Amino acid sequence: MERAVNEFASYLRNDKHSSENTVLSYIRDLRGFSAFMHLSGINDAVKVNYTNIMSYLYELQSEKKAGATVSRNIASIRAFYNYLIRQGKISDNPAAHLALPKIEKKMPEILTLDKVEQLLEQPRGIEPKEIRDKAMLELLYATGIRVSELISLRVSDLNLSLEYIRCGTQKKSRMIPIGSQAKAALKKYMEKGRCKLIEMPEEQILFVNCNGKPMTRQGFWKIIKSYTKKAGIDEEITPHMLRHSFAAHLIENGADLKSVQQMLGHSDISSTQVYVKLTNQKLKSVYAKAHPRA
């Protein structure tokens, strides 16, 4: 089964042009599934049936896995078997009729504008690392892009003169304006930071680590954690919280839902509407505290 999973990964990268983050998510789920099947005495993906898959899902539930995790595994297994159908190895998808568990949608966590500014003000030095960190944090909040998109940006994706970035996959990309403060931080990084950090002049990735290699997700998480502590902010700030804050602050200040959806890269506008609910909740809270007859 391992070989089939690896071939599926190649298909996702080379034919579907899926993002590396998406590919890794699929493969992580399928390797867990493959390991369970191996322990059950099944080593050939073609021999797996509906009952075998249900046994695996029961195992995930017995391990108290979240509904979202179980749903993601179902989606990964279903996509894998659809691939095997396309390859002519099977005729029916054994995961086709699996029911997705109900997932309780949590409201996204956002930061106040004061806390965002506290965080963004932390990289103040003139060392290349701090210039880079400032540019990354400003860009993340200015555009609401995902951390996987941030670290995948290439120099050619940045247009300072027209003040926008291009991000996404070869198949689907979007243009996002960057704003004056992010532009200034990026200009400084390109002129005084990146040239001192890159190891090879031909490096195309925009943000690199202190060894001149492309920045990793883990590396950027450490950067945010470090500056959160430096800012004296008690709560844990994640890259996705800055994405949520970007969207919520835009809508709170009058941005239309369709524009925010396009900038975030949501295929379904219902994913963006959650920020409207969040803003409405905040307005009710403000009203309840401030109105004398609330």
Helical/strand content category: mainly alpha
What's the end-to-end separation, in Å?
A: 62 Å
CATH architecture grouping of the largest domain: Orthogonal Bundle
CATH class of the largest domain: Mainly Alpha
Under CATH, the homologous superfamily of the largest domain reads Intergrase catalytic core
SSE sequence, one letter per element:
HHHHHHHEEEHHHHH
Biggest beta-sheet profile: 3 strands, antiparallel
Total tally of structural domains: 2
Write down the overall geometry.
globular
Strand content: under 5%
Uncertain regions: pLDDT < 50 for 5+ in a row?
none
In round numbers, the mean pLDDT is 87
State Rg.
Answer: 22 Å
Which strand order does the major sheet show? 1-2-3
Quantity of strands, as a count: 3
Task: Provide a count of the helices.
Answer: 12
CATH topology of the largest domain: hpI Integrase, Chain A
Helix content, binned percent: 55-70%
Describe the structure.
By secondary structure, this protein is mainly alpha-helical. 58% of the residues lie in helices and 4% in strands. It has a three-stranded antiparallel β-sheet with strand order 1-2-3. Strand 1 (158-159) and strand 2 (164-168) form a beta hairpin. Helix 1 runs antiparallel to helix 2 (20-39) and helix 6 runs antiparallel to helix 8. The mean pLDDT is 87.
